[in-house]
Design brief:
This protein is an alpha/beta fold. It has helices at 76-85, 103-114, 132-145, 164-177, 188-200, 208-211, 215-232, 244-255, 266-270, 281-286, 297-308, 323-326, 346-355, 362-376, 460-464, 469-479, and strands spanning 3-7, 10-12, 17-19, 21-25, 28-33, 43-46, 51-54, 56-58, 66-67, 70-71, 88-95, 120-126, 149-153, 180-184, 236-238, 260-265, 313-315, 394-404, 423-433, 436-440, 443-444. Bound molecules: (2S)-3-(carbamoylamino)-2-methylpropanoic acid and zinc ion (2 copies).
Length: 480
């Protein structure tokens, strides 16, 4: 029986903050309240002057991803271990079948890779093509494997991009199953055309990457995906919202009462597009990810989206290719493997840029780093809450602690850090995963294979009653 008593802290959940001790036992939270006593043999953590928050949930990572001819440097052990060092105790990663590859076959492959995880994990499954077997596999994944979200890449033409036919078929299937469709919203046809035009103009370096993916290209795709979801009357989750165009598309739809949710990357909140104009190829290429980092003005829109509740989660899209891999695009930016890291830094950056500046309260911080992702992917309050019965995934947060973020000291196996040199105030002093101390004052005690696959139930109750908007509109038309 392993028991940990976290004493003297302030518990912060998404709804409120209050002074209380927390007692964990055998991987669960068993008591939250004042003056708790430690049972014999328990470990005591002094949380005086600190916050006791739900472990972070990063709903967007790519550990061990094979993409654009390379495989990311972080595998499921090193990537989840790095997350634990930053207070993130669960990730939701992605199964990305090749076109024409069985979804179930790809799912089994990723499940095998993830067995080495140090922290808990789940999977969104990408729908990268369509036929009756995909429809069938989606049902198996929801009803038997605990997958309740399906990803759609609207970018990456000639690779994993979905056309509208696939979007419509898959969104409709998701609604039938009570699953959440999610999208990478960039118009892949426009990106493909702009990439050719930028290269033909003689620009081959990383500075060409943002020129080929302007915000309007993201805004168009976000609007289109939101409209398809509206007609099909299915909720939709837009990943890595990077600019005002897509943030406003979401806000407009929500103002009309549509169930649209948005995710923001820590990178897009804190890093801007000047990185692409760095004369050093390696540094500029290290920032090549999609959607690209944007001019600063967009960051204000993203923060206001989080403050207003029009954007809901923060993530990282942790996808770490090293300099040698990025150099594959030395003479052609379209060949630079897309991706950047962040799983270790997300919560520290969101706290420093969000709470320390007054943009977010500690409870809002918990909402956007943990609780909202748990609610949207239907694992709340098992995850995302410091409450009796929840998993003992807890981060003890020292608001006075400081840390300078750097590739030199990161646990990630990536060789670059997009937050390089940034000194933040507010750091995790202790991380508990399943009631075990896995990070203590800089000492990472991650164990390969300790992480569990977390099943995420369908949302049948909400969706089953949902009708195709077309039906509803048709009925209304007849009545008129
Ligand atoms: O697009 C994604 O989310 C994956 C392929 C990671 N790469 C990236 O640039 N975001
Ligand atoms: Zn993406
Ligand atoms: Zn991604």
């Amino acid at each position: 029986m392993s028991s940990i008593l976290i004493k003297g802290g302030t518990v912060v959940n998404a709804d409120r903050a209050f002074k209380a001790d927390v007692l964990t036992q055998d991987g669960k939270i068993v008591a939250v309240g004042p003056d708790l006593q430690a049972p014999a043999g328990a470990t005591t953590v002094d949380a005086g002057g600190q916050y006791v928050m739900p472990g972070g949930i990063d709903p967007h990572t790519h550990m061990q991803l094979p993409f654009m001819g390379a495989t990311t440097m972080d595998d499921f052990f090193t990537g989840t271990a790095a997350g634990l060092a930053g207070g993130t105790t669960s990730i939701i990663d992605f199964v990305i079948p090749n076109p024409k590859q069985s979804l179930m076959e790809a799912y089994q492959t990723w499940r095998g890779w993830a067995e080495k995880s140090a922290g808990d994990y789940g999977f969104h499954v990408a729908v990268t093509w369509w036929d009756e077997s995909v429809k069938r596999d989606m049902g198996t994944l929801v009803n038997e494997e605990g997958v309740n979200s399906f990803k759609h890449f609207m970018a990456y033409k000639n690779a994993i991009m979905c056309d509208d036919e696939t979007l419509v078929n898959s969104f409709k299937r998701a609604m039938e199953l009570g699953a959440m469709p999610t999208v990478h919203a960039e118009n892949g046809e426009l990106v493909y055309l702009l990439q050719k035009q930028v290269l033909e103009s003689g620009i081959t370096g990383p500075e060409g990457h943002p020129l080929s993916r302007p915000p309007v290209v993201e805004g168009e795709a976000a609007n289109r995906a939101i409209a398809i979801a509206d007609v099909l009357n299915v909720p939709i989750y837009v990943v890595h919202v990077s600019c005002m165009e897509s943030a406003e598309a979401i806000a407009r739809a929500r103002a009309r009462g549509q169930r649209v949710y948005g995710e923001v990357l820590a990178g897009h909140l804190a890093v801007d597009d000047s990185a692409y104009r760095d004369p050093d190829f390696a540094r500029a290429a290290a920032h090549v990810m999609s959607p690209p980092f944007r001019p600063k003005i967009h960051q204000d829109f993203l923060w206001r989206g989080l403050q207003s509740g029009n954007l809901h989660t923060t993530a990282t899209d942790h996808c770490t290719f090293c300099a040698a891999q990025k150099a594959g695009g030395k003479d052609d930016f379209t060949k630079i493997p897309n991706g950047a890291g962040g799983v270790e830094e997300r919560m520290l950056v969101v706290w420093d840029e969000g709470v320390n500046t007054g943009r977010l309260t500690p409870s809002e911080f918990v909402a956007v780093t943990s609780a909202n992702a748990a609610k949207l992917f239907n694992i709340y309050p098992q995850k995302g809450s410091v409450s009796v019965g929840a998993d003992a995934d807890v981060v003890v947060w020292d608001p006075a602690g400081t840390k300078t973020l750097s590739a030199k000291t990161q646990f990630s196996k990536g060789d670059f850090n997009v937050f390089e040199g940034r000194t933040v105030k507010g750091v995790p002093s202790h991380t508990l995963s399943q009631g075990k101390l896995v990070f203590v004052q800089g000492d990472l005690r991650a164990v390969s294979g300790a992480g569990r696959y977390i099943k995420r139930p369908a949302f049948n109750a909400n969706f089953a009653a949902a009708k195709l908007r077309a039906d509803v509109l048709a009925q209304t038309a007849v009545k008129r």
